[in-house]
């Protein structure tokens, strides 16, 4: 009898009791939500690239993260333990896509309940293009001129070509790479210089060293004084005439010592 009375009291007006219990749960949840705190910070956006495609549009480098949880739980979380990324590995064709921003928790962000992690923006628009490689020549860029009476007679660029990687349309239209400015002003000797290759497009990457070695050969310009009658070079000799000259040298040789003696005899 006792058990029957107890059960009957429990089920008596049961809809009202169920509603009361639900209201209590809702109030508890709202209370707990009101006691939770929210923390905001920016996180770098990582790009997990495709092997065959490359983004060609500008992509945000950071996104906004919000953490919601109990104050003593969310405050110790390190910002670097919440990673954000977009995954491009699944795409195989060129085109424009809206890619969801994903979240990866690690370290101090693991094992915390309750913890709500949200990100803004939710998606990133990405334009993908085929990734190609090409061998492209390098040309030096100069400023100034060598010293008066000198000329640049030879030059070497090591290496004279590089292998570049980047979006298909960008590389197909790329004719050459230029170097940083090489100063020639008033130079009169051979010189060697290491200069950087100018990469004016952030979507293009050069394999290997991004510097070249430039070697220049500079020589004096030789101008020979010529006799107007014989058009042979004139060598003014102040040494004894019995000195040896190269047999291949054909020139008018004027002995300045004899010229002086003959002038004295005339006087």
CATH homologous superfamily (4th level) name of the largest domain? YbbR-like domain
Q: At the first level of CATH, what is the class of the largest domain?
A: Mainly Beta
What is the total domain count? 3
- Which H/E pattern describes the elements? HHEEEHEEEEEEEHEEEEEEH
Compute the separation of the termini in Å.
168 Å
Helix percentage range: 10-25%
Key words describing this protein structure:
267 residues, alpha+beta, RNA Polymerase Alpha Subunit, Chain A, domain 2, five-stranded mixed beta sheet, 5 helices, 16 strands
In short:
The chain is 19% helix and 43% strand.
Walk me through this protein's architecture.
- The chain has helices at 2-11, 14-35, 71-74, 168-172, 256-266, and strands spanning 37-48, 53-55, 62-69, 82-87, 95-100, 102-105, 115-120, 123-143, 150-158, 161-167, 177-183, 191-196, 205-206, 211-220, 234-237, 252-255.
- The N and C termini lie far apart (168 Å).
- The strands form four sheets. Strands 2, 5, 8, 10, 11 and 13 form a six-stranded mixed sheet that branches.
- It is α+β, with helices and mostly antiparallel strands and 267 residues long.
- The chain folds into three domains: 34-121, RNA Polymerase Alpha Subunit, Chain A, domain 2, CATH 2.170.120; 130-220, RNA Polymerase Alpha Subunit, Chain A, domain 2; 234-266, no CATH class.
Topology, please?
Layout: H1 2-11, H2 14-35, E1 37-48, E2 53-55, E3 62-69, H3 71-74, E4 82-87, E5 95-100, E6 102-105, E7 115-120, E8 123-143, E9 150-158, E10 161-167, H4 168-172, E11 177-183, E12 191-196, E13 205-206, E14 211-220, E15 234-237, E16 252-255, H5 256-266
Parallel strand pairs: 1-4, 8-11, 15-16
Antiparallel strand pairs: 1-3, 2-8, 3-7, 4-6, 5-8, 8-10, 9-14, 10-13, 12-14
């Amino acid at each position: 009898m006792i058990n029957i009375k107890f059960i009957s009291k429990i089920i008596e007006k049961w809809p009202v009791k169920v509603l009361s219990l639900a209201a209590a749960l809702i109030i508890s949840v709202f209370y707990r939500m009101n006691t939770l705190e929210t923390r905001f910070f920016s996180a770098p956006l990582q790009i997990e690239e495709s092997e065959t495609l490359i983004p060609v549009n500008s992509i945000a480098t950071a996104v906004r993260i919000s953490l919601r949880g109990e104050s003593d739980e969310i405050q110790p979380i390190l910002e670097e333990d919440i990673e954000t990324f977009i995954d491009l590995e699944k795409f195989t064709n060129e085109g424009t896509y809206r890619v969801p921003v994903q979240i990866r928790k690690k370290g101090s962000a693991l094992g915390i309940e309750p913890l709500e992690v949200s990100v803004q923006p939710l998606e990133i628009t990405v334009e993908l293009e085929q990734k190609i490689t090409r061998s492209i020549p390098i040309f030096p860029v100069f400023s100034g001129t060598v010293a008066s009476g000198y000329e640049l007679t030879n030059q070497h660029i090591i290496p004279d070509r590089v292998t570049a990687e980047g979006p298909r349309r960008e590389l197909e239209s790329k004719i050459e790479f230029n170097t940083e400015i090489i100063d020639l002003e008033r130079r009169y000797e051979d010189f060697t210089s290491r200069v950087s290759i100018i990469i004016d497009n952030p979507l293009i990457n050069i394999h290997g060293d991004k510097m070249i070695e430039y070697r220049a050969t500079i020589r004096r310009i030789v101008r020979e004084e010529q006799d107007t009658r014989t058009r042979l070079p004139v060598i003014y000799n102040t040494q004894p005439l019995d000195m040896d000259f190269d047999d291949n040298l054909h020139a008018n040789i004027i002995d300045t010592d004899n010229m002086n003696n003959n002038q004295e005899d005339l006087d």
